[in-house]
Amino acid sequence: MESVRCGAVEDAVISPAPIKPACLFACLPQTLLISTTEGTVLSLLSMSVFGPVVKIHPVVLASICDSYERRNEGASRVIGTLLGTIDKHSIEVTNCFSVPHNESEDEVAVDMEFAKNMYELHKRVSPTEVIIGWYATGFDITEHSVLIHEYYSREASNPIHLTVDTALQSGKMNIRAYVSAQMGVPGKTVGVMFTPLTVKYVYYDTERIGVDLLQRTRLTPSRTNGLTSDLSQVGGAAARVQDMLTTVLAYIEDVLSGKVTADNSVGRFLMDLVNKVPTISPEDFENMLNSNINDLLMVTYLSNLTQAQIALNEKLVLL
Amino acid sequence: MFLIFSKLKKKTMDVYTTNLVVLKIIKHYQEEGQGSEVVQGVLLGLVVDDRLEITNCFPFPQHTEDDADFDEVQYQMEMMRSLRHVNIDHLHVGWYQSTYYGSFVSRALLDSQFSYQHAIEESVVLIYDPIKTAQGSLSLKAYRLTPKLMEICKEKDFTPEGLKKANIGFEQMFEEVPIVIKNSHLINVLMWELEDKSTVADKHELLNLSSSNHLEKSLQLLMDRVDDMSQDIVKYNTYSRNLSKQQQQKHQYLQRRQQENAQRQSRGEPPLPEEDISKLFKPPQPPPRMDTLLIAGQINNYCQNVKEFTSQNLGKLFMAEALQGHN
């Protein structure tokens, strides 16, 4: 059954693992166990192709980049553990920490004590996070990865493996996730195949707002950014909306003058947009506006009054 | 809080931080902080030239009913030791805390920050306001205690006379330090990638017009504080009244004594011994003024926040009016 999958999946990395036949029997129940824990009775075939979606938070990626920058001299890549939560069809990666390891031509040593320790510490803060896999920087999946993956499969059922290409070999930072699966002819040498999974980026609301601000650091030459003050933020947001409106207007102009063919779905969105503006009679709007403004002015007046009051009080005490 | 330009020779250090720290703080609150609970953590980094760079952070577990605070120190030690193995800066440079509608000026904060600043001069406390952030703009502020306040805390002299000597007002308790976010090139690349790949639509909470909920809560907290303040003022007033009454009594007693002595002298009897007046009239206990200062500082903070909020909303309302006018 595994061989059928080989042909169907593109871009898979095959690497022969030094697994002896005796271990095969140990591994098989594990793989079967995986399929049952996934809650599906379907064969591994469907799970590997349409595997669980991996949802990554930006914290994890920032942390990986940071550990890569701080790696020891001579180490070409960094590995670490991924923490998160598992859902029925998706795995959400919310945290990670790096694990010191040594890699040479023929052996790889991972500090497992350290990994366990760190996981314990992290569990104290967020008890809902579990080990769901591991990450490595670098483009390829090497033989050492297989060994490390085996270690992690002892810690978590069906761990995922995340690679982040921090060396930017192909000009982009390829962020990919894999899950391992057995392949080969049963009875003979068995290999391990890493099948890719879809990767999505998710944000909490506050995270997204934070990321929006952080995105602005891309644009300044010194890569710095200060945090702006109140009214200028509103101005900034309004400017962004204005930009978006001009883009939409430009598109509409093009459609009207025939340069671009009209697209029905876009048209529907535009209808929604225009209908969203509520029709209120001017007097009602005036009333609402005035009452709101009055509320705000009153609160401003009160807070100014309070501030003056405490300042006075202080001066009196210090007399 | 006002940005105080320090007249002392030492320039206040700017605080530089990275994306990673910001994201971690946001995540920590999101996952562990519900409602008005406060989440805290430690900031790690180093001091370079004239800036304080914060390069990493880790969260503190919540105070749970089981395990007492043996966790705290041990957890911190273990965490720092482990982080050192992966080459993360393990120098404590401060701590962070989330806040509920801006209410963070408290005795606990003061004490913690004092102990930090005593050990490391440039340490800061980062206050992250999740509710304000959810409204559209990241609210992260860094504060330090002013040198004056440090002096007072060191001497622990919180009587009115002590504070008068130091001439400290509620505006001079904390100084806000500007935060600059600076990233390495790799993180920059990551940001570009995320921009490319993520398909999250741009929601515009910042342009949201509804304000009553937020205002209500802020005003509620403000009223509570003002109540506390007024109670404090009453206490102080009674104290000063008692003090003046006592002064009067002392004065009268002395006068009577003198009169009696004069009479006795005229009669040829020995004068009465001078009794120790301080034993007779025990001076009333002056109330500690530190709490008042803190409350005043907190009220100031609330007022500032409210004013910022209202100014933003007024802007939005006028914009809405302009838009509607075009219809």
TrEMBL record, chain A:
Gene3D superfamilies, sorted: Cytidine Deaminase, domain 2
Q: Give any Gene Ontology cellular component.
A: eukaryotic translation initiation factor 3 complex, eIF3m
- GO MF entries: deubiquitinase activity; metallopeptidase activity; translation initiation factor activity; translation initiation factor binding
How does the annotation summarize its subunit structure?
Component of the eukaryotic translation initiation factor 3 (eIF-3) complex, which is composed of 13 subunits: EIF3A, EIF3B, EIF3C, EIF3D, EIF3E, EIF3F, EIF3G, EIF3H, EIF3I, EIF3J, EIF3K, EIF3L and EIF3M.
Matches recorded under CDD domains:
MPN_eIF3f
Q: What does this protein do?
A: Component of the eukaryotic translation initiation factor 3 (eIF-3) complex, which is involved in protein synthesis of a specialized repertoire of mRNAs and, together with other initiation factors, stimulates binding of mRNA and methionyl-tRNAi to the 40S ribosome. The eIF-3 complex specifically targets and initiates translation of a subset of mRNAs involved in cell proliferation.
The family database entries (InterPro entries) matched by this protein are listed as: eIF3f (IPR027531), EIF3F/CSN6-like_C (IPR024969), JAMM/MPN+_dom (IPR000555), MPN (IPR037518)
GO terms of biological process kind: formation of cytoplasmic translation initiation complex
- Which protein are we looking at? Eukaryotic translation initiation factor 3 subunit F
Q: For this UniProt entry, what is the primary localization, expressed as one broad class? A: cytoplasm
- Record organism: Oreochromis aureus (Israeli tilapia)
Q: Tell me the ranges covered by the MPN domain, including all copies.
A: 54-184
TrEMBL record, chain B:
Give the record's keywords alphabetically. Answer: Cytoplasm, Initiation factor, Protein biosynthesis
Locations listed in the record:
Cytoplasm
- Report which superkingdom the organism of origin falls in: Eukaryota
Q: Which GO terms describe its molecular function?
A: metallopeptidase activity; translation initiation factor activity
Region named Disordered? 245-291
Q: Which Pfam families match?
A: eIF3h_C, JAB
Which InterPro entries does this UniProt record tie to the protein? eIF3h, eIF3h_C, JAMM/MPN+_dom, JAMM_MPN+_peptidase_M67A, MPN
Compositional bias ranges of the Low complexity kind = 245-256
- Give GO terms for biological process: formation of cytoplasmic translation initiation complex
Domain named MPN is located at 15-149
CDD domains in the record, alphabetically?
MPN_eIF3h
One GO CC term, this protein:
eukaryotic 48S preinitiation complex
Which purpose does this protein serve, as stated in its record? Answer: Component of the eukaryotic translation initiation factor 3 (eIF-3) complex, which is involved in protein synthesis of a specialized repertoire of mRNAs and, together with other initiation factors, stimulates binding of mRNA and methionyl-tRNAi to the 40S ribosome. The eIF-3 complex specifically targets and initiates translation of a subset of mRNAs involved in cell proliferation.
Q: Which family does it belong to?
A: Belongs to the eIF-3 subunit H family.
Subunit composition and interactions: Component of the eukaryotic translation initiation factor 3 (eIF-3) complex, which is composed of 13 subunits: EIF3A, EIF3B, EIF3C, EIF3D, EIF3E, EIF3F, EIF3G, EIF3H, EIF3I, EIF3J, EIF3K, EIF3L and EIF3M.
The protein's name: Eukaryotic translation initiation factor 3 subunit H
